[in-house]
Amino acid sequence: MTGPTRIASIGECMIELRHLSEARLDLAFGGDTFNTAAYLARLAGDTLAVDYVTALGDDPYSAAMRAAIAAEGVGTGLIAALPGRLPGLYSIRVDARGERSFHYWRREAAARAMFDGEAGERLVAALSTYHWLYVSGITLSILEPAARERLFALLGTARARGTRVAFDTNFRPRGWPDRDVARATMTRALGLTDIALPTFPDEAALFGDADPDATVARMAALGVPEIVVKNGPDPVRLRSAAGDENVACPPVAEIVDTTAAGDAFNAAYLAARIGGAAPREAARAGARLAGTVIGHRGAVIPRAAMPAPETPGC
Ligand code: ADP
Questions:
Q1: How far is the CA of 235 from the centre of ligand 1 (A)?
Q2: pLDDT tens readout for residues 134-171
Q3: What's the gap in Å between 216 CA and the centre of ligand 1?
Q4: Tally of domains within the chain
Q5: Nearest C-alpha neighbor of 35 from the set 228, 306, 298, 299
Q6: Residue 36 structural domain
Q7: pTM
Q8: Residue whose CA is closest, atom 1 of ligand 1?
Q9: For the domain that residue 114 is a member of, what is the CATH number?
Q10: pLDDT at 311
Q11: 37 C-alpha vs ligand 1 centroid, how far in Å?
Q12: Residue 116 to residues 71, 105, 287: CA-CA distances in angstroms?
């Protein structure tokens, strides 16, 4: 039986409250792994089926979030509804100088319990049948140690059966008790990764990497076969079976909001690779989508603003 390639993006989507003024708020939903799932679904066509995996509650916000995920063409069948739990929440405020600041309420979030109990066991069994699993360092940071072990065991057994794992370290210091735990956890995840999609400044902050070459060397030494280091406007540093390459990012005329640049890049890179493109072409697709995303406000830009599919050979 040949169905579509199935990819599951695993993590936390939160309620986003954006200040319109000091007292007025606009409600949306956001989270790194969800942003990537949404862009993947937009790029996927019929050959790729994208599911989002998290846990929500049984409240109206969870229902609205589930509907928003489904509206992006992302499957919600593996999203648990945990009675009495709530999604995490964050606010975005902009100060007089245009600087954005984020505040989080997420310690009690339902997503933290997605791998708990028998439901967590069933989730692991379901996920082990996917062709691709996508995880970020934020996914790892929200899980308690026992749940993290379950996820690591899943990645190991699924890979042994042919599943491929894509991982963006996405290091956010506030999600971790200390740097040693973050370093050890990320390093373990990298040992279970087929495509690593880090962003250089995160790696410099956590591991002290001097440059993207150092990031590549560290991850290659852990056995990661394909490494894609994003670095803002600087070239994407690639190492893969095709060798070492640098791929330039097209200049962006007006940068409006850099939220989710890396998440969008990852989606376009993975969609291209799963579709059979070479790493270099996939990086070009990633930079192209990320360049469009930072020219618009918000993490998931309007569909109408998505770049047109590239003509082969251009
Ligand atoms: P993150 O969102 O994870 O911090 P980056 O800032 O490295 O990731 O951005 C991801 C991708 O977005 C880059 O690889 C590049 O393709 C694109 N990008 C980011 N900033 C710029 C910029 N100033 N000019 C052009 N492209 C950019």
A1: 9
A2: 999 999 999 999 999 999 999 999 999 999 999 999 99
A3: 18
A4: 1
A5: 299
A6: 5-305
A7: 0.96
A8: 262
A9: 3.40.1190.20
A10: 59
A11: 18
A12: 27, 21, 37
